[in-house]
Design a protein that fits this description.
alpha/beta, Rossmann fold, seven-stranded mixed β-sheet, 7 helices, binds S-adenosylmethionine
Length: 191
């Protein structure tokens, strides 16, 4: 689903992240990114669901932003990308512009806790921020019937409280997929 240029941009960001990990830079200087396989998956999933209102919480330097912007382009929708750290978001913005995807992305700088209440009837959300915020942010989302929420790092960080929390609901189906660091894919039943 991603094209060659998009895959190359993702590969560059991923190589840099692996290099930073190898150098054991302080956590604050490392870019944390979604795994390329997970990026491929969320692009195909969001496009396959024809999601038109997409959002990501924790855009960082933009691997997931590329994936979801391409899905938004295919569905004729738009992606809102929230990031709290300005230099990471600026880099993502430049990458998205270089790939010709700016028309499909709105970048919002700030704390997702302040921004989520402005969102309505979302079709697709990626949770990829601090793990202790997942449950609270999930609860705050205003979602359309049939919406899909994907959360990263489920297996790498053992986020089983989050998994149990979403699965308690009677109006969702949810599954953990062993892609990348583990994705929880939660689908709200259509009305
Ligand atoms: C794992 S990284 C995201 C990786 C990104 N999705 C990608 O594919 O490259 C997590 C990001 O979430 C951001 N973040 C953490 N808490 C946040 C919050 N409350 N609101 C917005 N961004 C947040 C961090 O600054 C960090 O850049």
């Amino acid at each position: 689903m991603l094209n060659r240029l998009q895959r190359e941009a993702i590969a560059r960001l991923w190589e840099r992240k692996l290099g930073q990990d190898l150098q054991k830079l302080p956590q604050s200087e490392r870019h944390r990114n979604l795994e390329p396989d997970s990026a491929e998956f969320i692009c195909a999933l969001a496009a396959g669901c024809h999601a038109r209102r997409l959002a990501e919480i924790g855009g960082s330097s933009g691997i997931s932003t590329i994936a979801l912007a391409e899905a938004a382009r295919r569905s004729g929708g738009s992606l809102t990308s929230v990031e709290i750290e300005p230099s990471r978001q600026l880099e993502a913005k430049n990458t998205i512009a270089s790939l010709g995807l700016s028309n499909w992305v709105e970048f919002v700088l700030g704390d997702a806790a302040d921004i989520i209440p402005e969102w309505h009837e979302l079709d697709f959300v990626l949770l990829d921020c601090e793990k202790e915020d997942y449950i609270n942010f999930f609860q705050m989302l205003n979602l359309a019937p049939g919406a899909v929420v994907v959360a990263d790092n489920i297996l790498s960080h053992g986020l089983f409280d989050y998994v149990a929390h979403v699965r308690m609901r009677s109006d969702v189906e949810s599954i953990t997929l062993p892609i990348g660091k583990g994705l929880e894919v939660t689908r709200f039943r259509p009305r």
